[in-house]
User: Fold these one by one.
Assistant:
Number 1:
Amino acid sequence: MSTAAGSPAWSWEAGPVLTTGPLRCERIEPVDVAPPFDRDCLAGLGLSGVQFGSLQRRAPGCLNVDLRPLTDGVTETELGRLVRVDGSTYFVRLDVCQPLPFAGDCVDWAYSEHLIEHVPLLGAIAWLTEVRRILAPGGLLRLTTPDLRRYIESYLAGGGFFAGYRERLRARGTPAMPDRLAFMVNHIFYFWDHRWIYDADELRYVLGRAGFTPSAMRVCAFQQGARPDVAGLDDERRNDETIYVEVRA
């Protein structure tokens, strides 16, 4: 995020220039399958799960979902249209605040990294209710999101993980981040267009409202969980600020 002259195009006071345009890929191939996507359809493509909020981290073996479209320079993905991307992964553009175009019990697992905090609370409950509907009995949901407790404990401790977090963002090309403690707390709530921030208890609450068993939710470590293939989707760049939880349908 910089101007042509190399100076920052945004500041921490003003906020970032949030990009909502298409993400680039090499090739988009339409798949002749219409929603609602059912278990036979997904299994026929070799897909056993769904990754919500995939951005550019599209994974094989699952249907990757994001609101931002993809483009290969010729074609741009349409809402609800399933496509094959670069000959290796599958993608569908969806808004998780709308009913999901999937049949019930159609996937064995669902994964979402740093998505739920961008959705208003009632929208998050509605989305998770839909996720519960599309998971097969015993299917696994793994959620990751910024951990409110880690931020508050770091604030009270006078720093905690904040220094490493600021350095990580600086290394990714952002402007130098202020070291004020109150700034860091405001940052998690407001800066990246966040809508609701969670700790373990708040995640249990929304999962319970969505039809999962709250007491069955388990807090996990980075890339550790009931299914190594699903936990392996965790992004190392975010593990210093993230809470990881799993629950079964």
Number 2:
Amino acid sequence: MLFYLAKRLLWMIPVLLGITIISFGVMHLAPGDITTLETSLNPRSGQEARQQLREAYNLDEPVPVQYGLWLKRVVQLDFGNSFTGANRPVLAKLAERIPVTLTINIAAMVLILAVAIPIGVVSAVRQNSLVDRTLTVTVFLAFAIPGFWLALLLMVLFGVHLGWLPVSGLTSYNFQSLGPLEQLVDYARHLILPVVVSAFAGIAGFSRYVRSSMLEVIRQDYILTARAKGLPERTVVYRHALRNALLPVITLLGLSVPGLIGGSVIFETIFGIPGMGQLMYEAILSRDYPVVMGTLVVTAVLTLLGNLLADLALAWADPRVRRGMASS
């Protein structure tokens, strides 16, 4: 297992390198740069001022040279300074935003699993019943609802009309004057809507995967044998069938990490949450290349680690996978 883990960690290096090369190249294909935006705000700035800015930011060098200079800094864990916002270090900006995005994504993943697994199990056990058909229709409706539209509806309903939940930011204006428990409650209230919206589509998708996997498992011979022995139906379903039915779902957990992090760009912008998604959106608009690349690298690392953790969880749940890892 340790050899497999070391091999996977080493394999992440060329994969991450390839991601950065593609991202860096695609980013520079976009028209304009930070110097265009800065000089356009000052009518007295001419071509000479723009050229000086390009030299200051190393944008006058060819793209491969720029990438080499950036990679040399990254190897030293230096992502450079932001082109905007008082030229703060990129790592400092990321350190402020990463905990927020991780909190939302982890909470969304927990909510997805807590809701999707029971829905999938009930739909499979009561296949073709009224309950199954009702859940199926509900799931397909959830697939059809755009996330940004759902976010706006929930903001209007719970934030404007009912006034139950805040609709933007992470804390209230009087956050510092609250006690520790009140601060925790206030923080949680601000996260409810973003977490629900972020998990909404995932609940629909994962419940379908759980249902499909459960239907396949409960038809296996060992399930029929367990029922023939007189085991309670609850034991058969949740102890024998569900554990094997969750194996494909564990794999999907790793694949869903990019979608959750990518969705943060939309939800954090809508709800005004200072996370990585909002930082990425603002950096793209301002052509802040160091921040964009820093955010992409962190996102890629989180995605690769998510896939690795999913593989390890699959090995923990399935002895056959463990034996394959030991022999590799």
Number 3:
Amino acid sequence: MILLSPLLGLTQSIENVDYISPFNNGYAAVKKGVKWGFIDEKGTLVINYRDDLVLTKTDSATYPIFSNERSLIVNKKNGISYFGYIDKLGKTVIEPQFLNATNFKKNKTIVLKLIKENLGVNDVLMKNVVNYHYFEVVIDSDGEIDQYLTKDPTHITLSKEYLNKPPGITSKFISANLIAIRDNNKKWRIKNIN
């Protein structure tokens, strides 16, 4: 004898949320308290509420988005923000390692790649002497560097006292293949990234 039971109560209901964004790349951000999650077009919570999603300013509001199946996340270590990306399952696919990052466009994005240079050892203090700097670079959706946008490194003191907010990114996509890069004289140059 086969027993059939009705499939009642299997649908998920999203309730008591503070904000629901428009859909972007197949997902809408939902906010509950200070945490954000994502629902799919069926209204299912596919990425649970979390506090590491980065907000993107749009024409109408500010909320996390997916772009090219990636969403920005941030992780603070010793008071410094490091940016990375998750996929549509909520899995970290590019570890938080960049001092700043933008949303993907056509499988590419601009990030600030941090470089640690070991200069030697201080024999008196028995500590490594290091130098930190960063470059603006274009990475692909796997996190691999595609191109350097800045020729010279920007030196930085990696301390929460000196770096209380992420350094700004001065380059920007102006089309799928063109990036405008602003130099120290506040002049622009155009680079084709194909």
